[in-house]
């Protein structure tokens, strides 16, 4: 089996953000932060308004399967209300019996939870989803720092005491620890990093400042130039492909593990992505890391909830292979190599035919189980691409399929996937294929007459498919932007 050295995750929200609607004034939540070496103290102030109760949420057990979130919080104090805490799923604090004449203060500390000398082998979940706060490094996800309301509110953040080194806050990109004013939801899917070697480079695209954030340990000038070249090549082409006119900045954060030798891992956010990596490497822009970076940037346009990771991860990996060829980062041969690696991984897994419900429920319980949606979803996406071509007489293909699905990515499920795809393929065929290959996890038996243009396939003696380029000119003409 191929060694799985990269870990790709899209962080999903653990609570629902509600619209204000009808001009209702949003409640204000003011956060004051104090860095104290191995922890950050948070002082949250808000006015209860006309509410009898208010619920604050902290942490996300769905991210990395971290179940001991409450142990990260220290010295909780509440002034101006009574409260109870439920730790069965993250940390949920219910506040009530407000003194309506006074603001409510919630004070707590977030303690670093990566022990000194921590150096795991073969895993990076602790490094990705636990706070790491020390005299010489700061790393935390927003949901591991801020207690946040279930309903959308107005948020301000002010650092009273800052670390003794540069800091980059994804919720306030390019502005360091300057005061922030925005929405409470801005503080959930975000990340904060700090390091004595932290550098921030600005890349202006279409008049918008985007940021490359690095804290590189080896040959920093060389590494920064390579990553800048990658970012300035791939990100504009991905925006063009998706017709993205977003005027918000996007940040690519490349931040080292403290001691972990795991090659690289990533989290995708709405306005950027973070990659953590083994800092002993000579350069960051290995082939595997280019795949990881492109996958995580792709989550800006291809994502899903935890029940449909076959799309959010698997279809995103298909677009990763496509984009790297289109941007001339990879030759066409590496497109089929990329997919063939997934065939090898899936067919050698003892869980290759596990059903989608079990994959969802046991996602964090084993390495193979975590990777099944990536492998299966990418292979299913390739299969669907070929079927679209056949059913439409090659009038439509990969680009059209992905553009249609982008419209429902934020609410994608079996029903609206089939609704969108039925613009190209017979609904009865779609339903039967989906239930066999995604719901039940059966092996996809490709018909070579239904492969995307320019590709061929053979079956090895053990029954494993192997993808080939049969006609490179036809392949290139099919997998391109200019249709």
SSE layout:
Blueprint: E1 6-10, E2 28-35, E3 39-46, E4 53-58, E5 73-79, E6 82-86, E7 91-96, E8 104-111, H1 125-129, E9 132-133, E10 138-141, E11 148-149, E12 154-161, E13 167-169, E14 180-183, E15 191-194, E16 199-205, E17 208-214, H2 220-242, E18 251-256, E19 264-269, E20 272-277, H3 287-298, H4 309-326, H5 332-347, H6 356-361, H7 367-391, H8 398-406, H9 414-421, H10 427-439, E21 455-459, E22 465-469, H11 472-478
Parallel strand pairs: 1-19, 2-12, 17-18, 18-20
Antiparallel strand pairs: 2-3, 3-8, 4-7, 4-11, 5-8, 6-7, 9-10, 10-15, 12-14, 13-15, 16-17, 19-20, 21-22
Short descriptors:
483 residues; single chain; 25% strand; 6-stranded mixed β-sheet
Task: Provide structural commentary.
The chain has 483 residues and is an alpha+beta fold. Helix content is 29%, strand content 25%. The protein has 11 helices and 22 strands. A 6-stranded mixed beta sheet has the order 1-19-20-18-17-16, with helices on one face. Strands 5-8-3-2-12-14 form a 6-stranded mixed beta sheet, with no helix packed on it. A 4-stranded antiparallel beta sheet has the order 6-7-4-11, with no helix packed on it. Helix 2 (220-242) links the parallel strand 17 and strand 18. Helix 4 (309-326) packs antiparallel against helix 5. The radius of gyration is 23 Å and the shape is globular. 41% of the residues are buried. The model is unreliable at 1-23 (pLDDT under 50).
């Amino acid at each position: 089996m191929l060694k799985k050295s990269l870990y790709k995750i899209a962080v999903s929200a653990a609570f629902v953000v509600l619209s204000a609607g009808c001009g209702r004034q949003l409640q204000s939540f003011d956060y004051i932060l104090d860095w104290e070496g191995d922890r950050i103290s948070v002082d949250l102030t808000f006015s209860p308004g006309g509410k009898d109760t208010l619920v604050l949420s902290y942490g996300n057990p769905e991210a990395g399967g971290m179940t001991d979130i409450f142990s990260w919080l220290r010295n909780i104090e509440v002034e101006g209300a009574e409260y109870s805490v439920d730790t069965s799923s993250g940390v949920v604090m219910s506040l009530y019996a407000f003194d309506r004449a006074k603001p409510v203060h919630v004070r707590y500390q977030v303690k670093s939870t990566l022990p000194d000398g921590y150096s795991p082998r073969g895993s990076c979940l602790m490094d990705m989803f636990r706070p790491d706060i020390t005299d010489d490094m700061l790393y935390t996800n927003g949901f591991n720092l801020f207690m946040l309301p279930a309903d959308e509110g107005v948020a301000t953040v002010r650092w009273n005491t800052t670390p003794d080194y540069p800091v980059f806050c994804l919720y306030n990109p390019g502005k360091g620890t300057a005061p922030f004013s925005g929405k409470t939801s801005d503080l959930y899917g975000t990340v904060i990093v700090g390091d004595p070697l932290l550098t921030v480079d600005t890349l202006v695209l279409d008049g918008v400042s985007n940021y490359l954030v690095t804290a590189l340990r080896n040959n920093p000038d060389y590494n920064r130039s390579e990553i800048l070249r990658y970012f300035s090549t791939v990100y504009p082409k991905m925006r063009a492909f998706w017709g993205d006119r977003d005027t918000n900045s996007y940040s690519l954060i490349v931040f080292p593990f403290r001691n972990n030798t795991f090659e690289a891992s990533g989290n995708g956010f709405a306005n950027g992505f973070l990659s953590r990596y083994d800092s002993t490497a000579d350069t960051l822009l290995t082939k595997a890391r280019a795949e990881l970076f492109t996958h995580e940037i792709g989550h800006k346009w291809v994502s899903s909830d935890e029940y449909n990771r076959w799309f959010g991860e698997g279809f995103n990996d298909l677009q990763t292979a496509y984009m790297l060829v289109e941007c001339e980062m990879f030759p066409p041969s590496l497109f089929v190599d990329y997919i063939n690696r997934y065939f090898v991984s899936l067919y050698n897994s003892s869980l290759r035919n596990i059903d989608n419900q079990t994959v969802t429920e046991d996602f964090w319980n084993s390495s193979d189980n975590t990777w099944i949606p990536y492998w299966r979803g990418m292979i299913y996406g390739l299969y669907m691409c070929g079927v679209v071509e056949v059913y439409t007489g090659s009038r439509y293909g990969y680009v059209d399929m992905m553009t249609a699905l982008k419209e429902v990515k934020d609410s994608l499920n079996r029903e609206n996937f089939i609704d969108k795809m039925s613009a190209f393929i017979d609904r009865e065929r779609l339903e039967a294929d989906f239930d066999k290959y995604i719901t039940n996890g059966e092996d996809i038996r490709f018909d070579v007459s239904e492969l995307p243009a320019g590709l061929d396939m053979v079956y090895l003696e053990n029954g494993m498919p192997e993808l080939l380029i049969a006609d490179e000119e036809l392949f290139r003409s099919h997998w391109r932007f200019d249709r």
